[in-house]
Amino acid sequence: MPEGGNLYINVHEVEVTKSDIKKYPFMTPGRYVYLSVKDTGIGIPKEIQPRIFDPFFTTKGPDKGTGMGLAIAYGIVKQSKGYILVESEPKRGSEFKVYFPIIKEDIEEKKIEIPLKKTGKGVLIVEDEPEILKVCKEFLEELGYKVFQASDGEEGWNVFKQKEREISLVITDIVMPKMSGIELGERVKTSNPNIKLILMTGYDPNLSSSKKMLADEIINKPFSTKTLAERIQNLIDDNK
């Protein structure tokens, strides 16, 4: 909405019936949590709507978008066995409709305890999403790690070169501006094969074998802080 407008967000439970799926035959009848995000912006032309969830597809100019936002959203919804639909017309805005299946189960509440290990070992986190970077940094500092950070691959490489002697582990997202996490990981491993490497991905859990060989660990987004702590401790605290 480059000139402003209205944004509407709606969440409620819905029942998808057999008559409803005549319009969307790929859906399964049942109870869903329905999330609608609607704007009054410029809309999406009909001819490109089939491609909007494709990785790296974007109509934005250079350095203004990676084309990964909707691809990641699509992946998260599909991992939850849900559906994401879009309705849009040029100059009349867009509406994204997300359906998450409701699971009717009692969840046993468990307290998760992660032992604090005051190791002081250095960890470099490279992530272009500010909130993820902030949460990971604060969490790992609480666990006693010395945390360095960077918001893109190029910055991550510069930080690594400056602080290499203090860094035991690099955690990097794969898709980032300026330099990908794969290229950063390759440079790190070439510079010092003893540095441990964790790749984070929200797009493709089925990475190629070459990328799997590069990383010591691969974490699929979204992940819990408990999972992150366990992976790190396995690599540099219980170090072989």
Structural class: alpha/beta
The coarse overall form would be globular
* SSE order, one letter for each helix or strand: EEHEEEHEHEHEHEH
Straight-line distance between termini: 53 Å
Main sheet: strands, sense, barrel: 5 strands, parallel
Number of strands: 9
Q: Spatial order of the strands in the main sheet?
A: 6-5-7-8-9
According to CATH, the homologous superfamily of the largest domain is: Response regulator
CATH class of the largest domain: Alpha Beta
Low-confidence stretches: none
Describe the overall structure.
This protein is of the alpha/beta class. It folds into two domains: 7-101, Heat Shock Protein 90 (2-Layer Sandwich); 122-237, 3-Layer(aba) Sandwich (Rossmann fold), CATH 3.40.50. Helix content is 27%, strand content 25%. The strands form two sheets. Strands 6-5-7-8-9 form a five-stranded parallel beta sheet, sandwiched between helices. A four-stranded antiparallel beta sheet has the order 1-2-4-3, with helices on one face. α3 (153-163) runs parallel beside α4. The longest helix is centred in the middle third of the chain and has 13 residues, at 130-142. The chain starts with 6 loop residues before the first strand and ends with a helix. The relative contact order is 0.11.
